Amino acid sequence: MNYLVDREIHVIGIQRTGQHAITSWLIGHFDSVFYKNCMSQLGQQKNVVGIQPPFWSFSGDDEKRGIKSFEIGHSALVLGTEFTVFDVGLNPKIPRQKEKLCHKFGADNFSKREDYVLVLRNPYNQYASILNWGKNRLLSPPKSFAKMWTKMAKECAGESNVFENRTTVIYDDWFEHPEYRRKIEERLDLPQNDDRLNTVMKIGHGRYWGSSFDGMEAKKEAQKMGVLNRWESSKDDDRFIELCKNEELVNWAGEYGWECPL
Known about the structure:
Number of strands: 7
Radius of gyration: 18 Å
CATH class: Alpha Beta
Helix content: 25-40%
Number of helices: 8
Structural class: alpha/beta
Largest sheet: 7 strands, mixed
Shape: globular
Number of domains: 1
């Protein structure tokens, strides 16, 4: 069987869920990686993209942005999908895009192994990051965020089953506990490697590159960012207070051990 890439890893989460930190960490486990950010999500009507140029290329310390064509020979392809307020699921055009690439390069199949890494974050810290970021106004209303976060929480818990061969990563545990990262590596059959743990990827728009709180100021010191206490910055915001009154979100957050801070 002839494959285009050995590993295909989709990193999936709601915007500001910490998925780019986890993506950067995953990239460090491979010799050479092609990476595509902002894959289209299910239900998105505008700016629909997919597995098409431009790409990022990572090989050791060599990082190139804006690669104009897909290339074979990389050990992994990492694809990021950020949900806003649509349904949980990948854009239905992606399978056809894979078929076209396989035909172009004469491959029998796209990848030897396909994994879906679902990232879930404490909703109170995540919502504070969204409010501070301010770029996606669709997620800023408490109802919109609560609806999307609850959908993601249910998928991660197995109450819905959109993704097969999925690995749930609780961002807070991944950030804080090395032993938790080891378990994720075992689940994905990856070697132990924290080389890129502190690398903040330069992803976003304009001044929104990196963290919504720290920008690129901590680009080599990601573990020093106060990501576990972001809620404190929004505790007096009317939108945050309203979110904390959403019974379904509060109940689901409690299922993961996250108590409402108000």
